[in-house]
Amino acid sequence: MTAPLRLGVLGCGMIGSAYLRQAHAVDGVRVTAICSPTASSRDSALRLWPTARAHGDRSALLDDPAVDAILVCTPHAHHCTDAVAALEAGKHVLIEKPIATSLRELDELELAAARHDRVVVALPLVDRPALTAVADLLGSGIIGAPMEFTSMLDVPGPPRSNWYYSREAVAGPALDTLPYALSRLLALTGATPSAATASVTQAIRHRRCLDGGTLTQQVEDHMSMQLTFLTGQQALVKSSWCLHRPEDYLIVRGRSGDIRLDCWRNRILVRSRTPPEQPHHTATWEDTPAFGIDLPSADPEHVKLTALVAAVATHTNILAESAFTMRLILTGLATHTGAVKVPPAAGGAQPLVDLRIGQEYL
């Protein structure tokens, strides 16, 4: 029997706590240490995993011989530094997004991953059953040639009146929520954009948060990217912290139908002339008939920890696609508004959708 992966959790805030709760249900992982500079956070973490050893600083956690892998859940500006330090200490690492807050940091992370014989799992993950289901639908030709893509993740904003809105966060949705919307679009198409245009704006200056706190916001609250592919298709990717109603979806519009993936609810809607081969039910989309497909759901932290265990077992890095996504976002963030120089393609990515139109009449 293989020994469980011994995990050290660096950062015990909301996300770190979510991992601690889910780790009990993940085969092949055991939390052996937690780390936070705040005593109250350490106490809360130990209530979720009482057998873990508590550390008050990062060095002690990295030196802990009972830790095989580090889960980086610190504030955004520390993610890259913490991940590189974990690699230098001989630990595997799972990095929450954003995996870097500057192009210089991203270069440093990729060099460290190449230099050390340890596994890096960088979020967001793109190998998800929901995207595979959409790819299968596109491959079946049910909506004809895919012509246009839209990927959006809009929320009112983080509910807590804390560092997320300060300069310490470096950026707002550009680094926090846009990576999800962009990474799944790039994974689905499997294609590198030939051109990209970014728009970064701030619509809210003084904000009241859901915890009742008020603050003066120091980061942008809206970023969008318009992507164009060599084959002529276009994609819009957007994330906003301004809208009252959260929405998280991916839409593919084709020559003879449309597909909509509700990413939070793991539901697919298909408008097409013929029903999908997958098990489905009757539904409506924008007051028009559609076919509905309900997919199994899973807790996101459970999925991430399972991916880490599998990656360490097979000694497989999950970095290239996330690094490409972040490089594109960081380039757009630096540009602020205007044309973006598209970075080199992520190595080893296999297209899920063939975007070639071919010679048929459309």
Summarize the structure.
The chain is α/β, with parallel strands linked by helices.
Q: What order do the helices and strands come in, and which of them pair?
A:
Blueprint: E1 5-10, H1 14-23, E2 29-35, H2 39-48, E3 53-55, H3 58-62, E4 69-72, H4 79-88, E5 92-95, H5 103-115, E6 120-122, H6 129-139, E7 146-154, H7 173-176, H8 178-189, E8 195-201, E9 206-208, E10 214-216, E11 222-228, E12 234-240, E13 247-254, E14 258-262, E15 267-271, E16 281-285, E17 288-294, H9 300-314, H10 320-335, E18 337-340
Parallel strand pairs: 1-2, 1-4, 2-3, 4-5, 5-6, 7-12
Antiparallel strand pairs: 7-13, 8-11, 8-18, 9-10, 11-12, 13-14, 14-15, 15-17, 16-17
Helix pairs in contact: 4-5, 8-10
- Cα separation of the termini: 56 Å
Helix percentage range: 25-40%
The fraction of residues in strands falls at 25-35%
CATH architecture label name of the largest domain: 2-Layer Sandwich
Question: Helical stretch count?
Answer: 10
Indicate the overall shape.
globular
Radius of gyration: 21 Å
Count of domain modules: 2
As laid out across the biggest beta sheet, the strand order is 16-17-15-14-13-7-12-11-8-18
Indicate the structural class: alpha/beta
Show unreliable segments. none
Largest sheet: 10 strands, mixed
Count all strands and give the number.
18
**What string, H for helix and E for strand, traces the elements in order?**
EHEHEHEHEHEHEHHEEEEEEEEEEHHE
By CATH, the superfamily of the largest domain comes out as Dihydrodipicolinate Reductase, domain 2
CATH class (first level) name of the largest domain: Alpha Beta
Write the CATH fold name of the largest domain: Dihydrodipicolinate Reductase, domain 2
- How confident overall, as mean pLDDT? 93
